[in-house]
Amino acid sequence: MPYARHGLIRLYYESTGTGTPVLLINGQGITLDSAWRTIDVLARSFRVLAFDNRDTGRSSFTPLPYSVMQMADDAVAVLDAADEESAHVYGISLGGIVALDLALRHPDRVRALVLGATTPGGPTAIPHDPQTLTFFARVGAMAPEEAEWAAVPYTYGLATRRLHAQRIAEDIARRLDSRPENMPLATLAYIHQVSVAATHNQLLNIGRITAPTLVVHGEEDGTMSPENARIMAKAIPGAELQIWPGAGHAYVTDEPRADEEIARFLLQH
Which end of the chain is more exposed for a tag (fewer CB within 10 A), N or C? Predict the structure, then answer.
């Protein structure tokens, strides 16, 4: 199995498709297996490099906390292991936070940038809804399947919940299949990655991003306010903005056209 190495951390990754590389950085607790919808779309036109973040899936788990900079350097290690000098970078949720840091500290490695359902951080970024914050403060202590189903109202748009429940079931089945069996490890990983997101702040720096950038968000995102997307699109020079009506935090599932449009954007660059 292919692994990249960053110090003592081993990062499991896979390469799918051929062409210009796209480095896919997934969100909190999301393995590359769970990102199958996005990989299937992008691999039609690109070489997709997807990996399990540290504390996730088949990559190393660590007892120590870490920073977004370390996670961004993990992503660079995957590019190095795949023998790619640069790539399009597509980060979703926590992965978008990592992608921002990567684009700012390693601009030579980023051809074009896609920021999905994420935030620049900082005191003026729009916070979570208080009810959502209360939920995510509790979810780390839930059993895996209970947590997945309890998160559905905060993750998916209303139309998907009412009309496309099978999509949600498919997502949850994939996520459960790829979770670690060791519950204490999963709980500690959750705490680590929540801390990374909570301490992230690039609001004053994102104006220095030089890569062509697309900002994507669901209008019904109950986890990360779409106002964050508008803030980033306004601050990043030349950035394009796509807000998908009826889509929640998991806009990839809610709106199948989203990744098709992202592929079009990347093909332009």
Answer: N
- Output Rg (C-alpha) for the chain, integer angstroms: 17
Which sign, positive or negative, has the C-alpha torsion 5, 263, 115, 32?
Answer: negative
φ and ψ of 113, to 5 deg: -125, 135
The pTM (predicted TM-score) of the whole model is 0.95
pLDDT band at 183 (very low <50, low <70, confident <90, very high): low
Q: Is the pLDDT of residue 246 over 90?
A: yes
Q: Where are the domains positioned within the chain? A: 3-267
Looking at the chain, the whole-number percentage of residues with pLDDT higher than 90 is: 79
What is the domain class of 3-267 according to CATH?
alpha beta
Measured at the CA of 54, the angle between CA 48 and CA 56, to 5 degrees, comes to: 80
Three-class DSSP labels, 248-261: CCCHHHHCCHHHHH
Please give the Cα distance from 125 to 141 (Å, whole number).
27
How far is residue 190's CA from residue 152's CA, in Å, rounded to a whole number? 17
The reported pLDDT for the residue numbered 204 is 93
